[in-house]
Amino acid sequence: MIKKMGIAWHLRLRMAEHGLFQTSDLVPLLAERGIHLSREQVYRLVTQEPQRLSMDVLAALCDILDCRPNDLIEVQVVNQQLRRTGGELTRPAAPPVRRTTIRRPQG
């Protein structure tokens, strides 16, 4: 089996710990460190897990939030593992669905 890796992105949590509740609060703080991103780019950075992240942006965020990269990025093993079958990757079969029966008292 092959483990699928993912990340948990904790930028919004770290921002809240420093009293930064609006994504736009980061725009001028990043600009002070030479990182010029639009409000939309910063919004996506805060609200979504980034697929790619430059080291300059990561360093600026760590400086702004007085944290380390591990405080922002948590590497996780995704619960779903992939199985190699005949050269193809497949997901294990889902457990069967149990239907619930509601029984009402007769009265």
Question: Could you please describe the fold and organization of this structure?
Answer:
The chain has 107 residues and is of the alpha+beta class. It has a single domain (5-89), classed as lambda repressor-like DNA-binding domains (434 Repressor (Amino-terminal Domain), Orthogonal Bundle). Helices cover 35% and strands 15% of the residues. It has five helices and four strands; from the N terminus they run E-H-H-H-H-H-E-E-E. The chain has helices spanning 11-17, 26-31, 39-47, 55-65, 69-72, and strands at residues 5-9, 73-77, 83-85, 88-90. It has a two-stranded antiparallel ribbon. A two-stranded antiparallel sheet has the order 3-4. A hairpin with a 2-residue loop joins strand 3 and strand 4. The chain is elongated, with a radius of gyration of 21 Å. The N and C termini lie far apart (55 Å). The model has no long low-confidence stretch (mean pLDDT 86).
